[in-house]
Amino acid sequence: MSRRLRAFTLIELLVVMGLISVVMSLLLPVVGRARAAARSTACLSNVRQLGLAWQLYTAENKGRLLDYNWYTPKTPDVAWGGYWLGMADQYQVRGDSLLCPSAPDPSSQKQGYGSSAMAWNGQSGSNGTAIKLNASTFRVGSYGFNHYLTTNPDDDSQPSKVTAMGDLTQVPVFFDCAWIDAMPIEQDASFPVDPPPDLKGNITPGSPDHWRFLMSRHARGINFFLGDGSARWIPLEETYLLKWNFYWQGYRLSLPR
Predict the structure, then answer these.
(1) Residue 51 CB: number of other CB atoms within 10 A?
(2) pLDDT of residue 3
């Protein structure tokens, strides 16, 4: 008995290809969201590592805040081993732990600023700073530090101990950032700060500090480590509701879509 072979017709083949395309179009956004969620989770872990190092430092120094050692050209090791980057390095938080998986590659911008998708780059800095020891030794990172959490011997109004900040559940310490730190101005709800032109995190030397973290790195928000030891994702509009310094009042931001 002869066996009759049956092949696909052109129409059947087109139908199958069409179904595959539909399934792929449905799966790709899901896969993309899953990858973004994984990157955000890994980033949150990095921020938590930085925060735990900071907690160890403050505990060992009886609650005293970090000194702001940024530029010591005659003794470059001082700045390199100081500020929050030197502190983190002392507790073995370095290298990839300073890089958000959503912004792992160093910026090529002249000033070294990062963005929502790029890490800040110490190679562009001056020798003898916290981000650059010399021409061959520099740091790259995706996170910033709350500059208000530093001692300032020239300003008696600035606290020198973390306990002066009050409720630490709302005090930001580390966060996704396009530069190594931020010291945002508050103004008030009736006269709010200027929003950035977009949420890409593209900043210049004249940009206000709050633009450094107002960027859509993890959807419409960024990851924070807070003074009480917690770490969480916070929507950009709510970042000014946090308590950046001991006299901060705060309000909800209105940002571009």
Answers:
(1) 23
(2) 55
